[in-house]
Amino acid sequence: xxxxxxxxxxxxxxxxxxxxxxxxxxxxxxxxxxxxxxxxxxxxxxxxxxxxxxxxxxxxxxxxxxxxxxxxxxxxxxxxxxxxxxxxxxxxxxxxxxxxxxxxxxxxxxxxxxxxxxxxxxxxxxxxxxxxxxxxxxxxxxxxxxx
Length: 147
Ligand SMILES: [Zn+2]
Ligand SMILES: [Zn+2]
Description:
Metal Binding Protein, Guanine Nucleotide Exchange Factor, Chain A; seven-stranded mixed sheet; three-stranded antiparallel sheet; globular
């Protein structure tokens, strides 16, 4: 059996009140420059790894904030009620998935971002190295949280 088949990742928020475990490999790892990711992360973009929701197990208290994206989907951002770390998100357009913020995964160096989305909103001070496929907004072919 290939080592990736049973890979389990752990992660959590800044204060450790929220911990989670996620199993398997992400469908995609993306840098997103949409305005809601900028506001929600306080940085120039957020980097998320998308996993099947049934592979994600959360422990600890969690707070949520819901809003409508421009395309009418309902987006929910889940964060630690104590320290405010953005932990994961869901999108009604991709109900069976969660997008975990890569910075909250304990050993995230083995993940490789594959794509940059909402590049039209990228800040001049937030340059991403490399030649990743880059999209102005959210490409149609991939369900993910968006603006
Ligand atoms: Zn916390
Ligand atoms: Zn975004």
